[in-house]
Amino acid sequence: MSTRTPTSGVFDTKTRSATGPRVRNRVEVGDDAPVSISDRSTANRSALNAPSKSGSLSRQVARHLRSRIMQGEVSPGARLPSETEIAVDYGVSRVTVRTAITLLESQGLVDVRHGSGTFVSDFGTEIKAGIQELRSITETIREMGFTPSMERHKGETRAASEQESKRLDLMPGEQVLDLQRAVYADGEVVAYSFDVIPTKTLDAQMLERMGHGSVFEVFETIGITPARAMAELHAVSSQEIAWGPQKPEQGLFLLLDQVHFDKDGKPFMYSKSYFVEGRFQFVILRTR
Amino acid sequence: MSTRTPTSGVFDTKTRSATGPRVRNRVEVGDDAPVSISDRSTANRSALNAPSKSGSLSRQVARHLRSRIMQGEVSPGARLPSETEIAVDYGVSRVTVRTAITLLESQGLVDVRHGSGTFVSDFGTEIKAGIQELRSITETIREMGFTPSMERHKGETRAASEQESKRLDLMPGEQVLDLQRAVYADGEVVAYSFDVIPTKTLDAQMLERMGHGSVFEVFETIGITPARAMAELHAVSSQEIAWGPQKPEQGLFLLLDQVHFDKDGKPFMYSKSYFVEGRFQFVILRTR
DNA sequence: TAGGCAAAGTTGTAGGACGACTTACGTCAT
DNA sequence: ATGACGTAAGTCGTCCTACAACTTTGCCTA
């Protein structure tokens, strides 16, 4: 019986040196004791109606199960109810539940054992901000319990460079919005973000909103939802990247160089995010 | 219809500056034309007997489909045969095929569209060495078409440090094998690997083999199969890491700091892999 | 010619059934 | 009392059949 303690949170700033408060308290119960995930008997179908309406039924179930696991409703290492129970609970077929659980398993969140049951991975709740999960930086920061903010350093339209045209599948010389911003968490700079967005399908008002709010929110309003991103990782050491009073001394960054695609496979944004080494902790769950 | 050209391979060395030879040639056929994935009619069940016997049936099917996609049997963007056809082809039920496809979908390899079909992701074949895929470095190098080799720089047993004990769930002061090696691809150094392995369950002969062959192969022989790894990513700039004649000038590395777990969730190796920036290209597919 | 409708094909979900595997427990011989 | 063994219950893995939901194609009609 492993008693390995979760050693690190996903997000880290210099201000929080002691990792004590982030240690997850375990429910004191036998390690393999089944945990009733729900008090009421058969009343979780309704939970799927509200905001998680998008996607197939199995994805909704997966999303709901996921959020319940994340909120600690089932402690790491403990067993989930059987597939049949969950199916009855949600009012769906066992096939749907199995599809949902397969999804969670491939994300490393749960561990399915033939003949035994489905168990919450021991570090499942630790990696919820893993890179492979596609979400905006500010969203990630907020979920970590910090207050995100951004400061626009530059925001102008210009012709796309050759590299940018190639990645964004543009005609040479097409106009793009060049957005340079600093990302803060609780007032401390954690990253410098360089976004390049084709202006073709945007009007002036949207361009203005891009600079101040969440870029993704603006995209949502015109029906573009990010579905995938293809990213490269690099280590960078340079004094030419950062700016401002909080500019880090050593100039060491982890670069996330990525192209965002919508659900139709069309690229709609090219962004380089330079994360200040040591301020933002990247965690990856690798599975077979 | 996107004509985005694959811009980058997964693996890169200085010697191959022109990316020409790595451009994947597409089968000249209508973008959405179904492609017969098999010539013979119902003879793929036998293909599952040979070496891919491990794991559940759906995992075997997934593995086989994956390898066929990787080998370019179906061009990116093209449609796979219907689930029913595949089921007949492999001699399994449609449920099993669906489970397998769900797995591939969660890995970003294919794109399932309700009522339309299952399509190979446009960059699916590009990311086969993505970090989230758990395999050894040498294995990855070999699959990229290079010849991997290793040079042992150090290999001694000593007491575990405090950090190592914590990550490997050891008693303080327990003995570990400290392995320091340089990883080469076609004779060029691409990474410096620092592995720490508890010697508790190993005998002298195995310790010797660890230093010269694949560490994972030795673990296989004693029934330990890597199932998951929890990794952190960091940018590192230091002159203290590398050695030898090919020691990189700038001392800039991408550090993959990870603990390996077996299928029972027990940690069995702690390794820090310093990849020389620019030599090894990390690609991540991010999905929602 | 443009629009709409129908049909065919494909994936998503349902329900029931059985096999394979794991675990717990009781029995029996030592 | 103890250990080995067998049994039974619980759970996941796979199969079968059927139908619903969705997409695409192409024909038909106005």
Any overview of this molecule?
The structure is a homodimer of 288-residue chains. Chain A is of the alpha+beta class and 288 residues long. Chain A has two domains: 20-126, Winged helix-like DNA-binding domain superfamily/Winged helix DNA-binding domain (Arc Repressor Mutant, subunit A, Orthogonal Bundle), CATH 1.10.10.10; 137-276, Chorismate lyase-like (Chorismate lyase, 3-Layer(aba) Sandwich). Chain A is 22% helix and 28% strand. Chain A has a six-stranded antiparallel sheet with strand order 3-4-5-8-7-6. Chain A has a two-stranded antiparallel sheet with strand order 1-2. In chain A, helix 1 crosses helix 3 and helix 2 packs across helix 3 (94-106). The first copy, chain A, is globular, with a radius of gyration of 22 Å. Residues 1-43 of chain A have low confidence and may be disordered. At the A-B interface, helix 3, strand 6, strand 7 and strand 9 of A face helix 3, strand 6, strand 7 and strand 9 of B. Strand 6 of chain A pairs antiparallel with strand 9 of chain B, so a sheet runs across the interface. Chain A binds a DNA duplex (30 and 30 nucleotides) through residues 32, 56-58, 82-84, 92-96, 98-99, 112-118.
Q: CA-to-CA gap between the ends of chain A?
A: 23 Å
Oligomer: homodimer
Beta content of chain A: 25-35%
General form of chain A:
globular
According to CATH, the homologous superfamily of the largest domain in chain A is Chorismate lyase-like
Helix content of chain A: 10-25%
* Lateral arrangement of strands in the main beta sheet of chain A: 3-4-5-8-7-6
